[in-house]
Write a structure and sequence with these properties.
4 helices
Length: 147
């Protein structure tokens, strides 16, 4: 048993501590950007559900004889943009095609150029500092697990 991180998680020769730390911070920033992306997708799903539920409510209000309120819901809410000119799917597209894809592209270029494409070098080194060699459930790689 080698009990070492897999080669794709080892620091390439000549890479400084500062570079590994900087890429770790960039990775943490991308985690936040991914979380934000998830919230935009959640907002998109909620808005879709809201639109469908508003449509049902409008029909029920109309069926109950309250045409004035149903008409206002039809006119003011159904089909309305939550942000100027955009439904939530457009917000998702703008985020994905702009901010998110730009950040992902820069991160990938940094990883490719600075650590030969090796992802999570900072995290792998943190794991090595904290794990107990030889202890079950502290293995360096998944294929070393004896469970």
């Amino acid at each position: 048993m080698d009990d070492q991180p897999s080669p794709e998680h080892r620091r390439p020769d000549g890479v400084t501590d500062e570079t590994v730390e900087a890429l770790g911070k960039l990775s943490a920033a991308l985690d936040h950007i991914e979380d934000a992306r998830g919230h935009i997708y959640a907002f998109h799903r909620l808005m879709g559900s809201a639109e469908s539920t508003l449509e049902e409510a409008t029909e029920l209000i109309r069926a109950a004889g309250h045409d004035d309120i149903a008409d206002e819901l039809d006119r003011e809410m159904l089909g309305r943009n939550p942000l100027p000119g955009m439904w939530s799917f457009q917000m998702v597209e703008y985020y994905d095609d702009g901010y998110w894809s730009t950040a992902k592209g820069i991160q990938q270029r940094a990883i490719d150029q600075l650590v030969q494409g090796r992802r999570h070098v900072f995290e792998a080194e943190m794991k090595e500092l904290r794990r107990t060699r030889g202890l079950q459930r502290h293995e360096a790689t998944p294929d070393e697990s004896t469970e």
